[in-house]
Amino acid sequence: AISTSSAMVKAIRVHEIGGPEVLKWEDIEIGEPKDGEIKVRNKAIGLNFIDIYFRTGVYKAAAVPFTPGMEAVGVVTAVGPGLTGRQVGDVVAYAGNPMGAYAEEQILPADKVVPVPSSVDPIVAASVMLKGMTAQYLLRRSFKVESGHTILVHAAAGGVGSLLCQWANALGATVIGTVSTKEKAVQAEEDGCHHVIVTKQERFVERVAEITSGQGVEVVYDSVGKDTFEGSLACLKTRGYMVSFGQASGAPDPISLSALASKSLFLTRPSLMHYTAKRDKLLETAGEVFANIATGVLRVRANHKYPLSQAAQAHSDLENRKTPGSVVLIPDG
Ligand code: NDP
Fold first, then answer.
1. Domain 8-128+279-330: which topology?
2. Contact, 327 vs 47, CB < 8 A?
3. Cα 126 to middle of ligand 1, angstroms
4. Which of 20, 171, 178, 276 would be 312's cystine partner, CB 3.0–4.6 Å?
């Protein structure tokens, strides 16, 4: 393998689960790529709520200490022996497993990365890869949103939420979004939300009933979890779809099947990795996201950039609901 970099790199490491302060800036050795692997010098790292779940122990990392992070865009600096199809200098992106993106450089399986079109800035790509692919499978595959549907999106000004609103609007849906503040409501409206509910001031179940004249919505995209789950079910029309894809406020309480029976509801708790596990699906899903950037369907809000060494501050801000749009960490920022 040809390498252009030294063996030690700076990375954020977690030795024990806890608050943002457990994110430590350390030297690690990443070695050289083996068969089927590449080494990538990261230009921008996407921060995702899932990073908080791993840091706090909501999800368990396979081993401790670990380097968090499941999304990055960078330049290939070395390729494993015999690998074809990837070259030093390629700009690539990945989202999902393996963990380890909070590092200046990392080793990745070559079949987990996708090429980044030269028209897309690396910071934009790192802002949209994981969140945009999530929007893709949620709107096109876990449930298929069509023109004429009315949908409810919680955390509509968040990283994923902003993209869901823009994309669903382009699909011809009537989009109802919830946000916590008036400032976020302005952003959600810009992103194509037709009705924005400010949850600090209004009760979303009542407002959705009003907006839909008591009919309810075809689908709820619920990433908030505990605080919203039950209300979300109440917002659905008969035979509606409950897509519970996150738990920013905590895990939803268990429900009984009779909670679904009253309206013949569908319930799914999907995960991006199952929708991008096959290489052709990964390429197709990422390709659709990049195409939607090119055509202007998605206007990526790469609003919040932090030096990678300041990951703790970034985590604190995301957790405290201060970061509408996407958050990225910049290794040399
Ligand atoms: P966001 O930028 O959306 O941040 C989370 C938002 O959730 C906040 O800004 C806040 O918006 C809202 N929120 C509501 N209650 C709370 C609370 N108690 N604490 C913190 N935030 C709260 O994050 P991401 O875009 O990174 O992720 C959005 C969600 O999507 C996450 O739940 C994540 O786990 C999930 N996800 C799931 C995937 C999957 O495949 N299943 C893939 C990718 C993401 P407001 O202030 O307006 O209420």
1. Quinone Oxidoreductase; Chain A, domain 1 (3.90.180)
2. yes
3. 17
4. 20
Pocket of ligand 1 (CB under 6 A): 48-50, 131, 134, 155, 157-161, 179-180, 184, 223-224, 227, 245-249, 270-272, 318-319, 321
pLDDT of the residue at 293: 97
Give per-residue pLDDT as tens, 53-89: 999 999 999 999 999 999 999 999 999 999 998 999 9
- Over residues 140-169, the mean pLDDT reads 98
Task: Please state which CATH class domain 147-270 belongs to.
Answer: alpha beta
| Ligand 1 midpoint to CA 261 (Å) | 28
Q: Using the mean position of ligand 1's atoms as its centre, give its distance from the Cα of residue 76 in Å.
A: 31
d(CA 124, CA 32): 28
Cβ(188)–Cβ(177) below 8 Å: yes
From 178, 223, 289, 298, the mutation candidate for ligand 1 (largest count of ligand atoms within 8 A of CB) is: 223
Distance 248 CA to ligand 1 centre (A): 5
3 state SS of 273: helix
The band of 1, judged by pLDDT with boundaries at 50, 70 and 90, is very low
> How much is the pLDDT for 331?
97
Q: What is the mean pLDDT of residues 45-58?
A: 97
pLDDT value at residue 7: 75
pLDDT in tens, 174-203: 999 999 999 999 999 999 999 999 999 999
- The residues near 266 (Cβ < 8 Å, ≥ 6 apart) are 239, 240, 241, 242, 260
Write down the domain spans for the chain. 8-128+279-330, 147-270
Tell me how far apart the terminal alpha carbons of the chain are, to the nearest angstrom. 29
Cα of 27 vs its chain's centroid, Å: 27
3-state SS class at 247:
coil
Q: What share of the chain is helix, strand, coil (3-state, %, to 5)?
A: 30, 25, 40
Nearest CA to ligand 1 atom 1: 158
pLDDT at 303: 87
